[in-house]
Amino acid sequence: MADDEKKDKKAADESADKAAKKAAAKEESKADAKESKADAKESKAEAKESKAEAKKASAKKDAPKAESKKADAKGEKKAAKKEPKAKKEAKGKDKKADAKAEPKGKGTKKAAAKKEPAKRAKAPAGPPVVRAKARYVRVAPRKARLVADQVRGLHIEQALALLQFSPRGAAEDIQKLIESAAANAENNHDLVGDEMRIASITVDEGPTLRRFRPRALGRATPINKRTSHIAVALVPDEED
To answer: Which end of the chain has fewer CB atoms at under 10 Å, N or C?
Structure first.
C-alpha cells in the first residue's frame, strides 16, 4: 500500500511539473509575440519617418524648378501685354497713312456715315372690330347665305328685329351668333352692344354628312346633310 501511495504522489508531482512547464512556455510565447508586434510597430514608424524625409528632400529639390516656371510665366505675360500695344501702334500708323493717301472731298463723310432707316408712318388706328364664329351649323350654306345677305351692313337692332320675324330656319342660328358678338363687344372691348353695326358676315361650307334612304325595288338614294361655318364682324356705328 505504501508503494502505491508513493507512485501516485510521483505521478501527481510529474503532472504538476508538466502543467507548470506548459504555462511557462505559453507565457514565454506570449511575451515573444508582444515583442515582435512592438518591433513591427517600430519598423513601421521608422518607414514613415523615412518617407516624410524623402518627401521633404524632393520638395526642396523641386522648389527652384517651380520658381523658375513662375518667372517664365510672368515673362510671357509681360511679353503678351507688350505685343497688343505694338500692334495698336502699327494699326494707328497704317490708318494715318491711309488717311493721307485718300483724297479729301465733300461727299466722303456722307458716304461713310451709315444711312438711318426711314421710320415708317404708323397707320391710323381704325375702329375696333369684334368677331364671333359659329362652326358646324346644321344648315345648308346656300340657305344661310340668303339670310346673311339680308342683314349685312345693318344696325344691330334692325338686324335682330328682321331675324326675329324671319320664316327661314337659318335666321335663328344667325340671330344667336350676332347676339354673341354683341356680348363679346361689351365684355371684352368695353363697347355698347346696342350701338354696333354688322360690318361683314360670311357663310362658308362645312363638312357634309352623307346618309342613304331606302327606296322602292331595293334601291337606296343618297342624302347629303350639309353644314356651314358662319362668321360675323361688328364695328361701332358712326352715326350714333
So the answer is: N
Q: Domain total for the chain?
A: 1
- Domain range for 169: 130-236
The answer to pTM > 0.85 is no
User: Is 62 part of a structural domain of the chain?
Assistant: no
**Low-confidence residues in the chain, pLDDT < 70:** 1-3, 62-71, 73-124, 239-240
- Beta pairing class for 209-214 and 130-137: unpaired
Q: Measure the CA dihedral 42/43/49/55, to 10°.
A: -160
CA distances in angstroms from 233 to 49, 104, 136, 176, listed in the order given: 96, 63, 18, 14
CA atoms within 13 A on the CB side of 65: 5
CATH at residue 154:
3.90.470.10
Q: Which residues pair with 221 in a beta bridge?
A: 213
Can you read off the three cell numbers belonging to residue 151? 342683314
In a domain, 101, yes or no: no
